[in-house]
Specification:
Helices cover 42% and strands 26% of the residues. By secondary structure, it is an alpha+beta fold. A seven-stranded antiparallel sheet has the order 4-3-7-1-2-6-5. The termini are far apart.
Length: 144
């Protein structure tokens, strides 16, 4: 679906307003996951609802990559994003989760964003001992 809108200033809400009929036409509910394209630049997000308006977040990085400025009218192409959003578990984290059924069940109940955060915490460790401590901490927390 395509529509035209203005790039809104950072305050009070930064982003692109989505007409309600476009959100309804996507068929993914009030806050659907979407793929957005502006000026050939594509990113994924979710439609937000703020103060009764449907909005797409527009970070500085995406605004720069799309080559648009605040106040500019732009054409937006939006599609329902049906690709499952999953975190790619590192092998050592997967092994630890699989060795503890309660932790695995806890991890599997997390949202995709929460799973990505768990993975990011493990993968951002610089030292092997830090990585191992983070895995142990995650397993303990996921057990409940």
């Amino acid at each position: 679906m395509r529509f035209r809108t203005y790039v809104e200033p950072p305050e009070p809400m930064r982003g692109l307003e989505v007409p309600p009929e476009v959100v309804e036409g996507l068929g993914g509910g009030a806050r659907p996951p979407v793929t957005i394209t502006v000026n050939g630049h594509t990113w994924t997000s979710r439609v937000a609802i703020m103060r009764g308006r449907h909005l797409l977040g527009l970070s500085n990085a995406n605004r720069t990559a799309a080559g648009v400025a605040i106040g500019e009218e732009v054409e937006v192409e939006i599609q329902l994003d049906t690709v499952p959003r999953v975190a790619v578990e590192p092998a050592d984290f997967t092994a630890a989760l699989d060795a503890d059924p309660a932790a695995r069940a806890g991890y599997d109940r997390l949202t995709a964003s929460q799973q990505r955060e768990q993975v990011r915490a493990v993968e951002s460790a610089k030292k092997p001992e830090t990585r191992q401590r983070r895995i142990e901490k995650a397993i303990a927390a996921l057990r409940g």
